[in-house]
Amino acid sequence: MPINLKSALKYFLINTVVIMLTACDSTDDTPDxxxxxxxxxxxxxxxHSKKVTAIAFKNGRVQAIGSRIGVKRHQGDLTEMIxxxxxxxxxxxxxxxxxxxxxxxxxxxxxQVQTLFxxxxxxxxxxxxxxxxxxxxxxxxxxxxxxxLDIIAIPNVTEMEALVEGDEVSFGQYNNRLKVPGFYLALDxxxxxxxxxxxxxxxxxxxxxxxxxxxxxxxxxxxxQNTFQSVVENExxxxxxxxGDAAIDAIIQAGYDLKLNAGQDQRHVIMMSRFMRNNxxxxxxxxxxxxxxxxxxxxxxxxDDIEKLGLSRANGQSPIKQAxxxxxxxxxxxxxxxxxxxxxxxxxxxxxxxxxxEEIMGSGLRLSxxxxxxxxxxxxxxxxxxxxxxxxxxxxxxADAIILSDNPMSIAPGLIREIEIIETIKEGKTIYRRPxxxxxxxxxx
Length: 445
Hints:
By secondary structure, this protein is of the alpha/beta class. It contains 16 helices and 18 strands.
């Protein structure tokens, strides 16, 4: 479940072993790998069937994958050979929503907060809905080369005019690990307080504002459509919070009015898309919209969802599997915050879809472990136009990886929650290593 920030900060200040990266300026053009990991289960997420037990990293990218014998030809005198000892390596996670700046304001230390995210296997994250002040803070850290993670800053759409007319942001391009691809807009609220905008009424309850309550949008449709049009005209991405299916209907209507289509490849992102209907997925496909889900809500709020919306709508929430079956891109770390995401919990939740009362919610929508991993890395990379560099462990792509204590593909689905992140690697370099039990005990007061 979500991690408490204050407790996490205290723990990591005492126990974490972290190595901060600087940009790699190596001009070494020899075929020798910098690092070779072998004797492990390496899940590349690429569309191939061969078994991978070894991987070579060179200059921050994957150099080779395959068997130990095959990859060993890249071993040189200075190559570091690391025995995975049966552990599992996967592509690192990409968080589609993180509230990074909010956590940074609370903690006050850019290194500590990045370590917290690295401890969750996250090497790229989106910082959603920030203001100009928070963006300036991130730019200062970027200019000072203090960013270890790739941070995708997404300011509130209210900041668009000033940022588009200014010259401080090169949209869509990384500058010292910081990128601004577009803007954020919230169209509705959450189901927990009856502010998610629904096409059909909530279940009758004396706490409702009025009978047949469906909630309402946070802005008039005309204002939303004009804002959407401005973002499109500036050739930027719009990241829209839409929890309820009525909010999603409005987005779809605006998309058709603006003559969007998948061929334009604009990839506007509908964050949460939580209570969408199946027929809306087909509209996403036609318009080129991307869904960013978060299945951890099923455990946190499942029983409450049933009470507020009824069993059918509650069961159908966050339909990632249906999106995949329709060949639609969909990611699964869109954690609404403000605490730190728990990535292994999110992985477990998408495979099991279990509530706190241990009831399965939407059994037909449970993901396979392979699908669940893809939703947290490969699919998320597509969401940010980064699929050519991230999301798979294949030659040429960034060496962004995680070492896990166990293989989610081979253990019982219910045990996925017990997997631990041993190490996080960013561009071939370790940025987080889980403290050993002995060092943790020694450091405890």
